[in-house]
Amino acid sequence: MSWICCQLGSREHYAVPAALHKEGKLSALLADSWVTAGEAKLLKPLAPNIAARRSTQIPDALVRRANAGRFVYEARVRLQHMSSWQTCMYRISWFGKWCANQLEVVDGKTVFSYSYNAQWPFEVARRKGMRCVLDLIDLAWMEEDITRRAAANYLALDLGQTIDAPKEYWDGLRREIEMADKIIVNSQWSKRNWIEAGVSAAKLVEVPLVYEASGSMEHVLRLGEPTGRRGAWSMEKRPDTRLRALFLGSVILRKGVGQLFDAIRMLKNEPVDFTFAGPLGVKIPDEISQLSNVRFLGPVDKATVERLYRASDVFLFPTLSDGFGLTQLEALGHGLPVVASTHCGLVVEDCVNGLVLPEISPEAIAEAIMALVRDREILEKLQSNARVPDKFHPRHLAPALLRYAAGD
């Protein structure tokens, strides 16, 4: 069973095509941008972000890249001053149609694509008798409704940048769902909601995201092994230590930041420091921004992310809805226990490697944080157990895809 993967951006670090290639099942990777090993070496000192557009686990020979088309796309977006949704619609249309053209001349038995840009390659694939596998990365229009209801008390924080997706965006996704032979979701949360939305349970397969430490942290992080944080809260070693809580990702209402801000208000006199790293999509209330124990860093690079993980004691993930929430695995991989909601991939085992919120409310978030402040032995226990569970290792990805999505 040979697979052709359509890859718009570096979603989840090329995990799916890399896993398939390792099993000898990857026929081709259709990528919107890609640099070869030689190009990466030349570009790294000058443009490291561009040099990183590749995976060392996938041979250059298997990649068909749309570098020129992406350059034209980015130039047009800048010249025409497109809105965010215009940019999004143009991007997925351009890439989807390019993939469709490539499929006319590339042979394979299964086409894999993430949602929103799959309709064009799927049309060609079905005509050629190829199997179509769709990965639904989120809850689509349901996520808008979930956020709207749960964030109703925090609309004053909205910067006016959040605009519901246009009808044609959802219409395209519905066509993809209809054409797909199998639909991958990354969590029980997603699967349950999509079934309630009317998608056939027989089509849906849960395949979680995967994570493995890489780069400079490989000598420190070992999947399934302790990370050496035990004793970090020892009173003998750090008598004046404050709990260091990290929020990493887009600072938006869907991520539960409204409820988190209220929790911070409740804890303003407690020994807790909060760091937010990621683009701001809400207005920060003055009473939050002026607190000495709260800082907002905005977007940060990969090196800074690594430092933040190492410098924190707990990771906060009170999301209202996520298809999975990869940062949970990243945090555990860096030895951080996670305080998480249940509206995402179930990575956290309550009172083992983190705390699971019984509800997404300011009171529940504040209580979870204070449980770690009051009982430092609990925090030490969670930190000692903070590791990526084996079931999220990349070696499980290809077998799951081949067994459930393609019938191998």
The total tally of domains equals 2
The run of helices and strands is EHEHHEHHEHEHHEHEEHEHEHEHEEHHH
Which whole number gives the mean pLDDT? 89
Describe the biggest sheet? 7 strands, parallel
Shape: globular
Q: Which CATH C-level class of the largest domain is it?
A: Alpha Beta
**Number of helical elements:** 16
**Helix fraction?**
25-40%
- Strand arrangement in the largest pleated sheet: 3-2-1-4-5-6-7
Q: Within the CATH hierarchy, at the fold level, what is the topology of the largest domain?
A: Rossmann fold
Characterize the structure shown.
Helix 10 (about 255-265) links the parallel strand 8 and strand 9. The protein is of the alpha/beta class. Helix 5 (about 85-105) packs parallel to helix 6. It has helices spanning about 15-20, 35-45, 50, 65-80, 85-105, 120-125, 140-150, 165-180, 190-195, 255-265, 285-290, 300-310, 325-335, 360-375, 375-385, 395-405, and strands at about 5, 25-30, 65, 110-115, 130-135, 180-185, 205, 245-250, 270-275, 295, 315, 340, 355. Residues about 215-240 have low confidence and may be disordered. The longest helix is centred in the first third of the chain and has 20 residues, at about 85-105. Helices cover about 40% and strands about 15% of the residues.
